[in-house]
Amino acid sequence: MLIEQPPFLYRLFFPGAHWRFNPEEKAVYLTFDDGPIPEITPWVLNLLDRYGIKAAFFCVGENVSKYPDIYQMLIDKGHVVGNHTFHHLQGLKTLTKNYQKDIDEAAKLINSRFFRPPHGHLRVPQFINIKKSYEVIMWDVVTRDYSKYMTSNQVFENVKKYTRNGSIIVFHDSLKAGDRMKEALPKSIEWLLEQGYKFRLIGE
């Protein structure tokens, strides 16, 4: 649970970051990290189109530079985009000035007021700097679709076990997560709809 649903005390380290939205509304916020890439992202977009769902995609600047057409697809289809650094840097392993430089480099390609730190790890000075320019979007449910130790069914079970009103749910449009995500995401969407959840878009 320390991974799938970060505990309250951990959330206190990042005051003002968004981990969950309105707990009074039966709604969820679907998000994707680490794309866009041609092998996975278009598949996700087609699936979301089938259900009429809009989501937030936290993009790695390096991927946007390689695949600008796919990035534009996200925007054209009405999804939200967010900055996920240029090189998918982990804040705890990076000097603050270098981390900010990487975010700024990504911002040249990603026009967004939203930021999500890779791995969810930040130094306090990094967080203070980022809050000056961005809304920091964390999560309430990590599906762990990226883990080679998880099956697609376990990913799906994480969604079922930890989702609640206002949950920000994280999947990954990445090669590492692709096979598990492609099986778990449709099941998760169907289950969430069956439970009466509405899909909301961050920032709407």
How is the secondary structure organized here?
Layout: H1 8-11, E1 27-33, H2 41-51, E2 56-59, H3 61-66, H4 68-76, E3 80-83, H5 96-107, E4 114-115, H6 124-131, E5 135-136, E6 141-142, H7 152-162, E7 168-172, H8 178-194, E8 198-200
Parallel strand pairs: 1-2, 1-7, 1-8, 2-3, 4-5, 6-7
Helix pairs in contact: 5-6, 7-8
Largest sheet: 6 strands, parallel
**Count of helical segments?**
8
Domain count: the total is 1
Average predicted local confidence, pLDDT: 97
CATH class: Alpha Beta
What's the gist of this structure?
It is built from eight helices and eight strands. The mean pLDDT is 97.
What does this entry look like structurally?
The structure is a single chain. This protein has 204 residues and is α/β, with parallel strands linked by helices. The chain has one domain (8-200): TIM Barrel. It contains 8 helices and 8 strands, in the order αβαβααβαβαββαβαβ. Helix 7 links the parallel strand 6 and strand 7 (168-172). The model has no long low-confidence stretch (mean pLDDT 97).
